[in-house]
Amino acid sequence: MSFVPGYSQNNSFAGMHGSEKYNKLSAEEASRKMHLEESKIKKYKKLCDIVLEGNRRRIYNEKYYNLVTELLDWNFELYTVWNYRKVLILKFLFKGLKENDLKEKHQIFTEELHFVLDKLRKSPKSYWIWNHRIWCLKLDKLSDWNIEIGLTNKFLQADQRNFHVWAYRRFIIDSMKKDDRVEQSSEAIDFDEFKFTTKMINKDISNYSAWHNRSKLVIKLFTNSPSLEHISTDEDPKMLEYLRFFNGSNQFLFLKKELDLIKTAIYTDPDDSSVWFYMKWLFSDYFLTNIDMQDMINLIKDTVNAVKELNEFELDDNEAENKWCLIFVAYLYKRLHSISKNEVDLEEFESILQRLEKLDPMRRSRYKEFHM
């Protein structure tokens, strides 16, 4: 119950990724705090009963709207109460408004978004609060998307890997593309987001959400790329190079440039799984089917050599091979065999799996499945 400080809710807006969503107390500490807050607990339980009864009886008036607000101030993890609040907004706050009273509804939603933001500052990883904010924006025909993008920037400054914020940002981007009030083209919006993922990855290569977002954007940009003539002359030269790849549908050159970025990342932290997952995607069927076969074979072989070299460095430094290096090289040999049907590649694949079984015996059964 969130009114007991430290009992359940994490009150830190800047709580970093990897931290516990809730602070854990010993049974004795929790009991002591509960005893000190006994009167508040009784009030909380009574308020819960009243609100839930109002929901059951479908009462939609000012009294119950205020009670719901008070209850959510105490505990904002009650999804049933959030759902009740939605109905109260539609049936109480919107009462008497017509369908085209957009400004009046926008004002109500603006106040609601302020209420929601206060809760998000205290619990930035709550599904129910983010869902409620999305619900508001879906119904508000005058939503200010720039404010929402700015909001995600603030939250990502506090925790760059908060996947709730990344998911919310994707919703905002999709909404912008569907909104006739937004002058920027969908392609230009996607390219701006691609640049944003680059910025976030440069800050923290372990940002799985940024890598994931990047993979989705790459496909969109190769399908629909913004025209070069609409790009500012002061565009970052590195980003302009990416744009030319997208604009010319040159997936081979894109892969070569992207692999340079990836190599820096894996040498920085060879045990970071998020980078390896993205690297694996770069050698997926999406690219294999669109690039000249010999070019792809050469690219895979070059990457195999680079990862093998990294594995040798790891062996020298740590007296043990790196599991992620071996897994990825095995994957590449399997891809090579699927393209060239060379039995040597298959033998290399089998050999690496045997080394993995010795290096990582707890997952021996999983590696045996790879053989199959």
Tally the beta strands: 0
Our measurement of the CA-to-CA distance between the termini, rounded to an integer number of angstroms, reads: 50 Å
Characterize the overall form.
globular
**The top level CATH class name of the domain at 29-143:** Mainly Alpha
Average pLDDT confidence is 89
CATH topology label of the domain at 29-143 = Serine Threonine Protein Phosphatase 5, Tetratricopeptide repeat
The amount of helix comes to over 70%
CATH superfamily of the domain at 29-143: Protein prenylyltransferase
Number of helices: 18
> What pattern of helices and strands is seen along the backbone?
HHHHHHHHHHHHHHHHHH
Unreliable spans are: 1-16
Radius of gyration: 26 Å
Largest sheet: number of strands, sense, barrel closure: none
- Please tell me the CATH architecture of the domain at 29-143 by its name: Alpha Horseshoe
Protein structure class: mainly alpha
Description:
By secondary structure, this protein is mostly helical. The chain has a domain at 29-143: Serine Threonine Protein Phosphatase 5, Tetratricopeptide repeat (Alpha Horseshoe). The chain is built from 18 helices and no strands. The protein is globular, with a radius of gyration of 26 Å. 27% of the residues are buried. The model is unreliable at 1-16 (pLDDT under 50).
